[in-house]
Specification:
- This protein is α+β, with helices and mostly antiparallel strands.
- The chain folds into two domains: 9-115, no CATH class; 126-313, no CATH class.
- It has six helices and twelve strands.
- The chain has helices at 9-33, 43-69, 82-94, 100-122, 129-132, 227-231; strands at 135-136, 167-168, 177-192, 196-200, 205-206, 217-221, 235-237, 248-265, 274-275, 280-286, 299-303, 309-313.
- Strands 3, 4, 6, 7, 8, 10, 11 and 12 form an eight-stranded antiparallel β-sheet that branches. Strands 1-2 form a two-stranded antiparallel ribbon.
- Mean pLDDT is 75; it is low at 123-165.
Length: 314
Amino acid sequence: MHSALGAPLAEIARAAGARWAIEECFQAAKNEAGLDQYQARHYRAWYRHITLALTAAAHLTVATGQHRRKGGGNRDLIRLSVNAISRLRAEVVHTVGHGAGHILHWSRWRRRHQHRARLSHSRRRSHDPRTCGCVIQAPRSPARSCSTPTARYGAVHTCRGATEVIMNVETVKVGDTLRVSCAFTPTRVVKISDWDVTIVWPWEQIDPDSEIQWNGQYAIPRKQGSFESRISLFQTDPAPWTLSAGDSCGVGIREQLVRVIDIGYCDPPQDVGWLPRPHTMLIVLPVDYEDPQGLAEGDTISIPSAAPVRVELV
């Protein structure tokens, strides 16, 4: 690497470190825009191909950046990547026999599955009482705001919310039945799509140190009778398929019974984009949802959470 005489060490280190980002950009352009897929003998032909390929790669990068600045809609899905956007556009344009709604539905399924896989990859499974015997309690007064827990294990965590929430994780295991509820809280609809109603999430605070850049919004399944709407804990009142952008509504969990299909422990707490960062994830399905092959993804109860969720073992 060449640099001007007297260049500071920090500037040299920054330039050297940029090598990896540059290599990743070129690799993405090769994979998604065919940057290296040419058989040209003359400079002009080579220049045309490189220009078109880099333009396509830039378009995909900008689209990805716009999606991430908007927060991606649903905090239970991984954000769209350059590869995912490229694949989606190719499938929408070239796939015969399936509409755009079907393709977007399976994209959401894959992204939810990848989100679960990412959490599973980073979590630590343990039966150590220090990691699973936590009691989380929210205050009774809605005027108090989220505060830092006094200890990682066995602490009383104070967070926003008007409802007391007590959950002894040590007593919960896969296969258990839980009674779950959450008081409905006023919010508003930000936007509507064929599959989701995006609302302002009224509880958790945005994590300023997160790498996910959550935008404070949450997407609730809108299609009546769909798989997503059947397993989703949080619902709107009135029903999501009756709402329009700008409407006021409530969001909460109607009291229901669910069964635990998986438990994840994260140490340190998982970076999910909002505060407080959860250290335990309970993956649940409605008790009346039949899944004989064990393929359903389920919904997530995050612990701790600023939402006034009440969970008790049945």
